[in-house]
Design a protein that fits this description.
Helix content: under 10%
Oligomer: single chain
Strand content: over 45%
Order of helices and strands: EEEEEEEEEEE
Largest sheet: 7 strands, mixed
Radius of gyration: 13 Å
Number of strands: 11
Number of helices: 0
Distance between the termini: 40 Å
Shape: globular
Amino acid sequence: QVQLRESGGGSVQAGESLRLSCTASEYTFSRSCMGWFRQAQGKEREQVAISASDGSTSVVDSVKGRFTISRDNAKNTLYLQMNSLKPEDTAMYYCASTGDRCWRRFVYWGQGTQVTVSS
């Protein structure tokens, strides 16, 4: 059973930074596609950033230049560095894994960590 646990959320002012962490119990972490998703109140969940097992990454246009996804395979940990936060970044942030390549569905999810950005 793959378990994902997020941490690092909180309440900040616009322009400040946060770093989210996601620790996985998965022994195949290094070979898994990992991602960060977010869901704001009353909105659909959206993909924020992806980290593939080959080291490639991608982020959604709305956070480019502000958010960086990274991973430490030795620690089974995924990170999301969020800089220059905006009120519209307020959401519950979830870590997810496909357990395999990025073309697979994200089937493993954490419980989420809340990020609140005030103006």
